[in-house]
Amino acid sequence: MNTQHVRICEVGPRDGLQIASQMMPTDTKLRWIRQLAAAGLREIEVGSFVPPRLVPQMADTAAVVAGALGIEGLTVCALAANLKGAIAAYEAGVHVLAIPISVSDSHSRANTNKSTDDQLDVVSAIVDWVRAQPRPMRIDAAAATAFGCSMEGDVALERVVRVARALAGSGVDAVALADTVGYAHPAQIRSVVRAVQDAIGAKLVKLHLHDTMGLGLANALAGLDEGIRSFDSCLAGLGGCPFAPGASGNVVTEDLVFMLESMNYPTGIDLKKLLAARALLAQALPQETLRSGVAAAGIPKTFHPRTALVG
Amino acid sequence: MNTQHVRICEVGPRDGLQIASQMMPTDTKLRWIRQLAAAGLREIEVGSFVPPRLVPQMADTAAVVAGALGIEGLTVCALAANLKGAIAAYEAGVHVLAIPISVSDSHSRANTNKSTDDQLDVVSAIVDWVRAQPRPMRIDAAAATAFGCSMEGDVALERVVRVARALAGSGVDAVALADTVGYAHPAQIRSVVRAVQDAIGAKLVKLHLHDTMGLGLANALAGLDEGIRSFDSCLAGLGGCPFAPGASGNVVTEDLVFMLESMNYPTGIDLKKLLAARALLAQALPQETLRSGVAAAGIPKTFHPRTALVG
């Protein structure tokens, strides 16, 4: 019997809200984050330090971080794509900084206005700056479009490996592979994860998966099979990608938790409480489609969560 | 590189339509079946021989079978749950008879008004009758609720194995395991498939999966890993289960084909033509939700179908 803990990082307040058509007020974000934490989520990406004119939904991230830091036991994550944002994240007091870097040059330029190589330099500069500060801050780098790009199509495995190696070499704490546009399939997850593990070992920590083609959980399963024990996901499968029209959002946290707990991987998350946190979303984001098989059908009698067993 | 062919049996015209709120006229069913066959589906469950007062949508199954038999290269399947239905299927000329038998006694009584053991006797009687006829007809038995039951909850593995063994012993050509209400998870798929393979070997041929909890494709992947090379699915994920309220339907054929072809398992199916067959569904069943990630997002640039390569 497998009993390895799987860590889920809820990215809804960042990845989910950044492309939502409605703005969520700061106090609503914080009520939502508190509900997620109460359901057992120990790591939440609460926002991003990016120019408000580009992503107005994230303009209040410093205030959201300040509120989230008051939640006991919660690891507060935020995203920043450049040094200015990283400094703001540090000053706001975040525990974990997530830095995106696109393996696809075209996506990199569209997303951060920099080539992949130039963004690698940005990551190095951020790491150097953070390491020179008195307070430690974990740095996670996310290799975006690692499984395909809506602009370039296929992304060469050699390029993914090169970026992962450069990120590990720059001194980040952890590397995530992101299927930003949701084109990955399970065989690809396996081969890319193996190649990156061969290159950087345990520095490859996490997968960030989207459910564009309906393969999100199948891809998570393939990652699990390769030893991945950390995943990003969004409550109700919010999110998406501005460069993948028609795409549904991130892997659905509720369904991922259902799968993991059913398979005897404890997540520390109470599925009932997690489902209850959807009510706030339905109210605050009436125009968004809230997905989740488990939410639609209800938790079945056959569900025997692992987390309940371990306390 | 894996190059094993995977056989998909489209069950939309039976499992998809039987709980649809609208009736589909016979000629529309046949237009749809012709489109599916033109997309490369070589096996289609076109209807069921069940009392029309119980399932009025299937009242025209003999006529649908007659039309489908005119499609070159198509293996025409139909479902029947008792000898009377099996005789009607034989007389209609179907190539493959699918017989359901619920592993859960409660579901068996609700579905066929018989206990599991009594339904096993029905299967034996059908096999004996069919084998005494001049024309051969393949007989597939589907062990329903093999992964859980909305009424009974957990279904004991020993019971699944006992039913599978009895089915194999009765002389059916193939056994399928059905996650009728969609409660299965990948670890369970693996353990049940292995146990049934240990009991009946290659007589276990197929999985019939539902997407209730969003785990349909993850479960298909688990089955693939255990050597399963045949799956039921429904275009647009139609279907569902009258005993699992809120449940979404069967595994989505389009997304399953996308996953398999991406993973280098040829299916013989042309994904573009398959997606085109949704238009008829949208028109004929305006009240049904047509699912599919691939349909919503479009076929990505990164899709390199295996079927195109093998011709």
Stated plainly, the CATH topology of chain A is called TIM Barrel
Total separate domains of chain A: 1
Count of DSSP-assigned helices of chain A: 14
Q: Termini of chain A, distance in Å?
A: 17 Å
Q: CATH homologous superfamily name of chain A?
A: Aldolase class I
Report on the structure:
Chain A is α/β, with parallel strands linked by helices and 311 residues long. Chain A has one domain (7-310): TIM Barrel (Alpha-Beta Barrel). Helix content of chain A is 42%, strand content 14%. Chain A contains 14 helices and 8 strands. Chain A has helices at residues 12-16, 26-38, 61-68, 83-92, 105-112, 116-131, 157-170, 186-200, 216-225, 253-262, 271-276, 278-284, 293-297, 306-310; strands spanning 7-10, 43-48, 75-79, 96-102, 138-144, 174-178, 204-208, 230-233. An 8-stranded parallel barrel of chain A has the order 1-2-3-4-5-6-7-8, surrounded by 8 helices. In chain A, α4 runs parallel beside α6, α6 (116-131) runs parallel beside α7 (157-170) and α8 runs parallel beside α9 (216-225). The longest helix of chain A is centred in the middle third of the chain and has 16 residues, at 116-131. At the A-B interface, α8, α9, α10 and α13 of A face α8, α9, α10 and α13 of B.
